[in-house]
């Protein structure tokens, strides 16, 4: 107590008891409740787990705000062969063109054999002749 009298009041350290209950009645006023761990405690101490949970919640909220219409069903392919169809599309376009040319040649040949050459060459020439 002699040290306390020599120091000015501003420099005196305030006493706090968190995990110790003093027997002296004068010191009972300095007792504070010790921090408790867990969600039901009043004084929650930040631990790695609580910080991780808070960060996880923040990230989930931000993601839900950024992509509200993002649906996992839209991301997955509807059929397992979609990539094969995509790769073959260019080849199929070329094949379709060749098929149309071959079909038109076959039709022209048949019309020539039947004797209606005007229809085989084209309908526009028949109109010009008239």
UniProtKB/TrEMBL annotation:
Please, which domain of life does this record's source organism belong to?
A: Eukaryota
Q: Which Pfam families match?
A: cwf18
This chain belongs to the protein called Coiled-coil domain-containing protein 12
Output the InterPro entries linked to this UniProt entry: mRNA_splic_Cwf18-like (IPR013169)
GO cellular component annotations of the record: post-mRNA release spliceosomal complex; U2-type spliceosomal complex
Q: Which gene encodes it?
A: CCDC12
Source species: Boothiomyces macroporosus
